[in-house]
Structures
1.
Amino acid sequence: MGTLGFWRLAQADPGWIAAVDPEGTPHRAGDLLARANRLVHGLRDLGLRPGDGVCGLVPNGADGLVLYLAALQAGWYYTPVNWHLTGPEIAYIVADSEAKAFFVHPRFAAEGARAAEAIEPHRRFLIGGAPGVEGFRQADELTDGQPDTPPSGRTAGATMHYTSGTTGKPKGVRRPLSGADPDDAAELMTFLLALFGMTPGRPNAHLVTSPAYHTAVTQFGGTALHMGHTLVYMDHWDAEEMLRLCERHRVTSSHMVPTHFKRLLALPEEVRSRHDLSSLRWMIHAAAPCPVPVKRAMLEWWGDCVYEYYAATEGGGTIATPEDWKSHPGTVGRPWPISELLVVDDDGEPVPPGTPGTIYMKMTGVAFEYKGDPAKTAASRLKDHFTVGDIGYLDEDGFLYLCDRKADLIISGGANIYPAEIENEIMIHPKVADVAVFGIPDEEWGEQIKAVVEPAPGVAPGPALAAEILASLEGRLSRMKWPKSVDFVAQMPREPNGKLLKRKLRAPYWEGRDRAI
């Protein structure tokens, strides 16, 4: 141990450009280190002790990074809050995480102020140097006059992310603190990126394409930083802007979702070929199944730099290198060296290769609990493995394939139908920008298959398009899996990390029913 970790690297080379804000402002490592150190001194004066929590309602960029770097060297839990939430939802997280300090960026001041009653007035701070907001102190009040020197008694903190909460309230995924030196703990974290073959040092740049409140975005960005890579932040994802940033900053890695791929491939050929992407080495994707033709097209365009994995906030996962995927198209990979997989039936018994079942995982030496919810923690467990409710199967070689989430399974006429399989086939139609498939009530069959489509730009929705989409499934998907009907939406309800909010689409069809899957 001893060569990686942001704080160590920043002391050795304070002039290194560690981050570039969305508007292009570069931030030197030494300046970020000084800001993080002053913040630790200031929050300690406020009474924060190891094990306490800090919440940040901040956009992508240096302000959130400083909160992360302060918490992770002072032994605190840092919770980046989803800025798409409403005041009461934010208040719930601030209260549930037992935060001792709440930082709000002026951009989110309206909902942040609505959430403020969850924490005492002297613990609310406005970060990002803008006009005051009633009931908040300026973060400068905490840090003015504080020394830039490293705080004494440094100890590793952790992020505590809140899961999406598809049922009930979201839960914080809380891990025990290690008590280790922060740089040593950060160096241990780099094993994850090393699995993809990523190497430390410069010149390397990691493009942050999604909101940093997501676990994987924080994890991959933070770890790239601890390896000495420059973080280049995007504020809103845009396909052509991403290509421009990759060329301008010689981006070597990023963390993406299949929706990004679909939109990149929709760019005109002259736009796609205009940008020099020769620096790309580790373009990593996850979060949703990727249609085989989409992935194949990305590998043809970008070469063998497209890696895939399957994982959960709770820990553990798989990885598929470009070579793995080409020899096993559609796979999400094999388990990490420190991870184990189990695919079981409804009785918790392992199923043979090729048979879909519930996926359970475990990560050696990594424990977690859902904060304040022992029942949910216990319900997700099978001995020392856990599940997030996904369905999949292993092939004879031990490669994992995803079918769907258990909650999204359609049972029609007694047959199990996986919407993701249907979505993957519809998604590759050139007139489709996005698609969601789910079950709706059917008196005879129990459920029938509904597809909701967002047409590609300039394509008119209507019966003709619906017929064309269904006809394209001929010979590729058995008739029992065809949607019974197709509806259209102007824009699909997706979180910025690509996660589809299917329940929003499904709810109107199940209104007034006693059962809504």
2.
Amino acid sequence: MKVLKHISIVFLIFATSIGAAQVQFEAKVSKKKLGVNERLRIDFEMNKDGDNFVPPSFADFTVVGGPNTSVSNYSRNGKRSYNKTYSYFLSPKKRGKYTIKQATIEIDGETYKTFPITIEVTKAVSKPNGNSDATDLASENIHLVAEVSNSNPYLNEAITVVYKLYVSPDIGVSSNWREKEIPRFNDFWSQNIEIKGLNVLEGEYKGKEYRYVVLRKTVLYPQKSGKLKIEPLVMDITAEVPSNRRDIFGRPLVTKVPKEVTAGSRTINVKPLPEEGKPSDFKGAVGNYSFKVTTSKTQLNATESLQAKIEVTGKGNLKLFELPKLTVPSSLEVYEPEHKENIRTNTSGMQGGISDTYTIVPQYRGKYPVPSISFSYFDPEKERYNRITSEEIVIDVMEGPMAVNSNNENTAVAPKQTVNTNSNTFAFIKTASNWTNTKPEPFFKSTAFWSLTLLPFLAIPLAIIVRRKKDERDADVQGNRIRKADRLARKYLGEAKKTMGQKETFYLALEKALHNYLKAKLNIETSDFNKEKIESLLLKRHVENNVVADFISILENCELARYTPITQVTMQNDYDKAAKTISLIDKQLR
């Protein structure tokens, strides 16, 4: 009897240990029937930690929140308990019956799957999720706002859009927010300003105390007049609304409410620049500028060189207009200018300077005046045009040859010469013959015979040398990679090079080449990518910061070229920079 009792106890302990060690992995939904305007929560729970969790595709739903991960690991009455949950918030796309397929995870080397769940989506309901209090409270206490510095600017006048998320102190927001729709600034030249960290600040919204974070800052320059629309920023967030319930430690529990917030679209009324008083040499500069023309020297000898610099500094649309051209006498040889930009962009717009530096080489001795140059701009603060005119500069060439005057009246005229006729009228007719033997020489033992005989023997050492060179070239991994990168750059930029000189066609081809390169090398579709995401991808692939910055600047130049005049020199510089940058990226990608 005692033996039977002991066996029963052992069996009970064994069964209990098996039950305790059993792995559980299951999917739970907040409801199986919901309105098309409601949100569905699905939790994937497990009682042991695992790896390689793969959720279902959620093809018939939009993921508006998640995955949120929660872990509980505690001991009660000497018994340890573990629970890990992956949570998603889903929004149905349309009415109907849909099946959420299996999720999988690996635990202790075994793969576990959940059971499929069928969800019925009905018409819209009056009280979504049956939690109107929490939803209403979240709607009343969370606001996404687009603050525009000036809604009635002039054409090409800088404005700033700052996106702020205001949250009342009464509720919270989880960190798993995401941007659902990123605003596109059509008909604007735009540049995002980098935000280093999301700092929580104190402020007011409609007269009430709020906390807020600045999500985005963008500087815009309108490129046409009239009413221009700024598309909204849309975000999916999870609000944490306090409830009356408490956990086992007495702490208040919160209700997590998935919510879509939008800053709404904004309309900017752009005023055209006034026609009254517009200077004839006005080229689109808007802002507040200073202008000067300088030369590196004013005295030199012939065939020596000097530099003439045309420079504009100040605050305004520095990247969106063309500098005036330098005009000099024809006796001075002038080369295409070198364009430089030293511009920084902050919330007040572009500031800094741009310049064109010409190299001038005089050919003859003398004094040559460089005529004065004028630069005109529109000042939006004073609402008037201003013109700045440089002083005339005289270049004194002290030593060198004198210029020849082709209109000299004292030029000697050569005397006429008497023409003597030749009495032998038919001298051009050949009257003597020069016959040669046309019988062919025998091929055997001829020069050609011996050359063809010895040629294979002479080709053997040549083939050995060529083979060794090829082996050395194949072994040069780094060199081959460099040559391959250079060929790749020429391949993608071939179309752009063919259209050099045609501004719009060239920059469209250049931008397409850059996007095709990214698509080929990173296996991504770049149509929905912005510059920030491209920059992030390249940095993750260990491309150097300065190379990534050059690549982004070329993309910005392609966008900028649609709205500003571009010279042949600028196109050539952008092409060379693109070829160099693609080559460097291809060498550094890992």
3.
Amino acid sequence: MPALSTGSGNDTGLYELLVALPAQLQPHVDSQEDLTFLWDVFGEKSLHSLVKIHEKLHYYEKQNPVPILQGAAALADDLAEELQNKPLNSEIRELLKLLSKPNVKALLSVHDTVAQKNYDPVLPPMPDDIDNEEDSVKIIRLVKNREPLGATIKKDEQTGAIVVARIMRGGAADRSGLIHVGDELREVNGIPVEDKRPEEIIQILAQSQGAITFKIIPSIKEETPSKEGKMFIKALFDYDPNEDKAIPCKEAGLSFKKGDILQIMSQDDATWWQAKHEGDANPRAGLIPSKHFQERRLALRRPEILVQPLKVSSRKSCPVGVGLNELKRKLLISDTQHYGVTVPHTTRPRRSQESDGVEYIFISKHLFETDVQNNKFIEYGEYKNNYYGTSIDSVRSVLAKNKVCLLDVQPHTVKHLRTLEFKPFVIFIKPPSIERLRETRKNAKIISSRDDQGAAKPFTEDDFQEMIKSAQIMESQYGHLFDKTIVNDDLAVAFNELKTTFDKLETDTHWVPVSWLHS
């Protein structure tokens, strides 16, 4: 880069340098096109204006300016009141309209704050009735605007004292650094809390605005700084803290929808984690049920139907007629080199047209029962004194051929397959509305396995009701295990969605259980 000579001494400003730059560079430019480009760039009027503004501000800053007045907002109000009493011409109307705009009022308010250098909140005077003998008592004042304090309290079961149960990451209490887990709360705004329930104290805090004064006895236990790295999870279910009777403080809860990405801020509490939505500018975390707690609640939830080992004759075991078998068949024949299915085991005698290892793997009843005892079956059941089942080895056999194993199982079986070895992607085929079922299945028939002939019978209204009810129960109890839900409203549309989903599995990244990473 050649040295630039301006001939104006050290007083030459940035604007003059910018104007002179193209002429200074002309001898060093090879083509007319480059020279034209430089003239266009450095001759841009908007750039000149910005540089002029920069120089004016830089010069003004050197003068150490002080505000002319500190009450611009009040002066503007006085002016508006004075103008109201004048004959309203167009100029006065325009000025009044301008002074009434919220952004102008806010600008004047900020100006006054900066002029007065009054950036701290106004706190009330310290109370005069502090007992000097209480060396361990701390008086803390926090300014609570419209956000929660970000702390929960509980009553100590042994001492009956009100103590801080948790501090929400990023909340007002956390940012202050003055309140800690285990601190004993004595007073809130001068109101003793020893004889109050936590719910009553929360109500006092909820109704308080501005500065809140706490009298606390600090906890003797020192908190160790958290060394947790960033952790993100994908929500597997919808959650509304207002509907959760177990949450210690509904106001501190964080609501989310299935599929939301949450950043876990703290796992200090084994029951209630602290989290916030990914990308949320609000630093305050909220309470969500921990993974262990939510799984325990699901396990203890009384099922609406009794789910038993697969019973071939049981039409209540899954929503028959939803189109699952047809979708699986279409996907299989779309690429037989890429997709495969398992061969089930059975103890019934082989029929003349059947081949061992093709339709079924035929084994003895004793061997089947032995394999059941050794947990070698994913699912099994009994029909007319014969066993039927899908073995784990049959899945492995498909995977060994480097194929995707298409497997339809009872929903309660899914959790046993969610392992690093199988890495399943679980798709729930859901029936459409009952009106749509009546429309699309009115001429269809259902194959009943309750007799030897496997006769096809028309769908009944009870069949439609059963399909809807079964699907609702499955989604309610096992929806957190489903990676995707496809509504089979139209078979062709559902198949295209299914095929697209499987194709994306080959290229796109997907969320997986964290346990797979540590297996």
